[in-house]
Amino acid sequence: MLTPGSSYSWTLKRDDNSVTVSDDRSVTTGSFNGQSAIKTVSNMTTSNGSPSSTDTYQTMNEAASVINVLGTETTSPTAVTITFTPSYELEFDLQPGESHTETYQQDINTFGFSMSQDVSMTRTYFGIKSVSVPGGTFQACHFKQETSIDGAAPEPVETWVDTVSGLVVQQLNSDGTRDQLTEGEVNGNPVP
């Protein structure tokens, strides 16, 4: 999903019908704090809130199956820049049952105000599972991510990512709600 020139869109619906989230993303190149990066532009709309626009800056080491996330810039509804020090890694060569833990600092800047938070994030990979959602049946990589900020209790989020398109097809949130894919496109082509 990090090929410059590609585009993705999908809609997730919460299982209690309380929220619908649509995300349109395009991939290009850019720089973040002077470092060349792959830039993902995300324009998100939700049924219960304001639209948002966020650019995420990443580098990719295909040989090591690692993505490094450098930071994000949100321009709407509020201008916020978040820098990750060091950049955190997303590893994609984990075997089922394996985990990877990252500790880093996130520096948040908005309206001239800045603050820093210490983050600990553990990602566990459970393997490839068959998942049926309103948008179809997918073979999906199943991850759990547990994030703790400034020593607080970690908040777990489980995600199922389609092995073909790279789209999130299902997400189990820390509050127990579940979001499921209703429709998606990659470069204008519907999935699955």
Q: What would a concise description of this structure say?
A:
It contains no helices and 13 strands. The protein has strands spanning 7-14, 20-32, 35-46, 52-61, 66-76, 80-91, 99-110, 113-133, 136-149, 155-162, 168-172, 178-186, 189-191.
Description:
The structure is a single chain. This protein starts with 6 loop residues before the first strand and ends with a strand. Helices cover 0% and strands 72% of the residues. It has a single domain (7-183), classed as YmcC-like fold (Beta Barrel), CATH 2.40.360. It is globular. The model has no long low-confidence stretch (mean pLDDT 94). It has a twelve-stranded antiparallel beta barrel with strand order 1-2-3-4-5-6-7-8-9-10-11-12. It is mainly beta and 192 residues long. 16% of the residues are buried.
CATH architecture: Beta Barrel
Order of helices and strands: EEEEEEEEEEEEE
Helix content: under 10%
What structural class results from the helix and strand content?
Answer: mainly beta
* Poorly predicted parts: none
Taking the sheet with the most strands, its summary is:
12 strands, antiparallel, barrel
Number of domains: 1
Shape: globular
Counted by DSSP, the helix tally is 0
Percent strand: over 45%
Strand order of the largest sheet: 1-2-3-4-5-6-7-8-9-10-11-12
- Average the pLDDT over all residues and give the rounded result: 94
- Number of DSSP-assigned strands: 13
Rg over CA atoms, rounded to whole Å, is 17 Å
Determine and state the CATH class: Mainly Beta
Looking at the structure, the CATH topology is YmcC-like fold
What is the terminal separation in angstroms? 15 Å
